[in-house]
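quick q for whoever's on today - can somebody do inverse folding on this one?? i tried earlier but teh output was garbage lol. tokens:
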């Protein structure tokens, strides 16, 4: 998946299911991304780092509009 396209809620729900995250369908997009980041062993940084330089990042387009 390209890091330049915004990620859909369906894709997030599929990722969450694969990672064993419960109640994904009810979660807000930002909370779901944080849960996915944590489940993958990463910092739950989505939307929290101004001028983020982390690349590659699956969530970058949604996070900082890059």
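ok took a stab at it. sequence:
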């Amino acid at each position: 998946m390209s890091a330049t396209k915004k990620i859909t809620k369906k894709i997030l729900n599929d990722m969450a299911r694969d990672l064993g995250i419960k109640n994904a369908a009810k979660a807000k997009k930002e909370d779901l991304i944080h849960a996915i980041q944590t489940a993958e062993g990463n910092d739950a940084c989505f939307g929290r780092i101004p001028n983020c330089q982390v690349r590659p990042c699956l969530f970058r387009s949604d996070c900082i509009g890059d």
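fwiw The longest helix spans residues 9-19. also The chain has a mean pLDDT of 90. so keep that in mind when u check it
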